[in-house]
Specification:
Layout lengths: L1 H22 L10 E6 L2 E4 L2 E6 L5 E7 L2 E7 L6 E4 L6 E6 L8 E2 L6 E10 L4 E12 L9 E15 L7
Parallel strand pairs: 3-11
Antiparallel strand pairs: 1-2, 1-11, 3-4, 4-5, 5-7, 6-9, 7-8, 8-10, 9-10, 10-11
Length: 169
């Protein structure tokens, strides 16, 4: 009887070990493409994203989460570092697309600071990748509760790029 007890105990432990090993699995999700950052030190990941050519040259790279959108405006697709807060050709903004009384934040000439780095532009696959960080100023100077917003550790990775479509052939 004691032998049966020890056998059952070993059998029980073996079943538990097998069950635990079988229930462990790796759920690896690759986040490709991606547009994410820390917004005021809180993780922020876009649900939708795009990169589009603009009529005067350059590109808009944007990521949206619900009604909130981050837009990076760059004068070219050249892989390099673009400094924000110097001019209006290179700018970053954050806003709520549908809110009437929500603040809108932007960088521009002598306004805000930061940088956008294009690390890769793959013309064959039509994707763009890079990093960003910026502090954008509230466009409503009277809003003392929300003077600025800061995005750090920002990454856009393999965002689909749409070139400017010319309908005049």
């Amino acid at each position: 009887m004691l032998e049966t007890y020890h056998f059952m105990k070993k059998y029980y432990y073996l079943l538990i070990t097998i069950f635990l090993l079988a229930s462990c699995e790796e759920d690896i999700k690759f986040n490709t493409p991606a547009f994410q950052s820390l917004k005021d030190n809180v993780f922020w990941r876009a649900q939708n994203y795009s990169a589009q050519a603009k009529a005067g040259g350059g590109v808009y790279i944007s990521g949206g989460l619900g009604t909130n959108v981050v837009t990076l405006k760059l004068p070219s697709l050249e892989t390099k570092t673009y400094v924000l807060g110097v001019d209006n050709l290179t700018a970053a903004s954050y806003s709520d697309r549908f809110a009437i009384d929500k603040p809108e934040f932007t960088t521009g000439t002598n306004k805000g600071s930061g940088q956008v780095v294009i690390t890769e532009f793959d013309n064959n696959k039509g994707t763009i990748s890079g990093t960003f960080k910026f502090t954008a100023v509230n466009t409503n100077a009277e809003d003392l509760e929300n003077p600025s917003v800061t995005f750090t550790e920002g990454v856009f990775y393999k965002i689909p790029y749409t070139p400017l479509v010319n309908f005049n052939n």
